[in-house]
Design brief:
Order of helices and strands: HEEHHH
Number of strands: 2
Strand content: under 5%
Structural class: mainly alpha
Radius of gyration: 19 Å
Number of helices: 4
């Protein structure tokens, strides 16, 4: 799967290959990191995740109960920092999605 790094929403809906635009409907995975001012150090996050996963396994948490359990553990063990990061990421993702929708609409309508 080709990977593109784009700096604006306009490009997300319309990546190009060397031979021109992609044809037809194509799935895209868009990865948006948390805003820098809300991001946590990688080592801290990895340590928090390892601890939360170990706690889930020790408690026998399975299935659809895993995600809420992990998020609660992460928030508690980080003093709420992961919750604040997730909220900031939610807002950033909404902004990005809106920008992509506007760019896509403008491209489709020729505006």
């Amino acid at each position: 799967m080709p990977v593109w790094q784009l700096r604006s929403q306009i490009g997300f809906g319309f990546p190009q290959r060397a031979g021109g635009h992609l044809q037809g409907d194509t799935d895209r995975i868009i990865v948006n990191p948390p805003p820098a001012e809300n991001a946590l150090p990688r080592a801290e996050v990895e340590s928090l995740i390892s601890g939360a996963v170990a706690a889930a396994e020790a408690a026998g948490i399975r299935g659809k109960a895993v995600t809420p359990f992990l998020l609660e553990q992460l928030a508690r063990n980080s003093g709420g920092k992961t919750l604040q990061t997730n909220i900031a990421l939610l807002v950033a993702n909404a902004r990005l999605a809106a920008g992509i929708a506007v760019a896509y609409s403008a491209r489709k309508t020729g505006c």
